[in-house]
Amino acid sequence: MVGRPGAASAPVTAGTSGVVGANLPALRSHNMALVLDLLRTAGSEGISRLELAERTGLTPQAVSKITARLRADGLAAEAGRRASTGGKPRTVLRLVPEAGHAVGLHLDRDELRAVLVDLTGAVVAEERTSLDLGAGPDAVVAAVAREAGALTGRVAPHCGVPHGWAPGGRGTDALLGIGVALPGPLDHTRGVLHRVTGFPEWDGFPLRDALARRLGVPVVVDKDTNAAALGLAVDGAGGSFAYLYLGTGLGAGLVIGGTVHRGARTGAGEFGHQVVQLDGPPCGCGNRGCVEALCLAAVARGEVDEAARVLGTAAGNLVALLDIDLVLLGGRTVTAAPDAFVSGVAAVLDERARRVGQAAVPVRVASGGVAEGAAQLVLAPLFGRADG
Fold this sequence. Notes:
The protein is α/β, with parallel strands linked by helices. It has three domains: 71 residues, Arc Repressor Mutant, subunit A; 142 residues, Nucleotidyltransferase, domain 5 (2-Layer Sandwich); 131 residues, 2-Layer Sandwich (Nucleotidyltransferase, domain 5), CATH 3.30.420.40. The chain is built from twelve helices and 15 strands. A five-stranded mixed beta sheet has the order 6-5-4-7-10. A five-stranded mixed beta sheet has the order 13-12-11-14-15, with helices on both faces. α4 crosses α6 and α8 runs antiparallel to α9. The relative contact order is 0.12.
């Protein structure tokens, strides 16, 4: 295969194409990831070996060796021929999407959503069920195992996983891994949860290792907001942006310079617990006047415009602090009233921008979901995304 999920990529230096490979044996996996990513972005039209060499900076011989291995592994296939400016037509290669799959799981406080995606990130199948995060680690791990097995077994003819696949059973070679996204704070590197607001029983639980033992496949765990931000970055939301998730809680995923920013202790993005009203209502985190508490209280009262204004105030603080290019909104509460939240947050940002004579940062609803982003925790490193 092309490496293991979560494997670190070698340093990349920018060229005219934005990425440059290196003809060194130690960077073989890195170079293969560059080629795979170009095959992925080329889509069904494909890309020639000469174009791959030009865009990666690799020699034609190195590209030929890499593409031969990818074809042998079933990851790449011929997509026809393309006329050239001179000489014989060039053979065009494409990625084979069904050659590998990943499962993305979004564990919300009251719901579990699971998706099975192919190598391009396209959703092949989806499951959704109720979930009680407060039921404790053992019950939740068991529920996750059931849903993962049901998801892959139901679509076995499409993804190469034998019907009746069970966690740890045969056929897991077609499943590259499982990405899990859930409320933080947590340690992304070790896959250990911290004291999730309202659920102290999860503090210190090694979720990644528990699921890996149960499922028999690699598992990556991250905060729901980070996973969603990664998925958006992979799908082309470039530059620096903030993904603000408002559902049963409120958090942020930060992408700085195209890379997910997790912080030194992987705790960045605890956006919902910034205090915006010193004498405000108590929050489950122990503080008073947190933006999460104020937003959720306004939503509970049916005052969506007020919730949007509070969210815009907090978003304005973030924009001023990080000077980001874009604010993306997501989560069930936002999608229930998208126009109200976009206009409300944008109005606050516009007013602040006018006061300082700057252009306002655009606001829009995010196009991707958390479960899809969770799947990218597995897929992104295969395509050279070190922040996966």
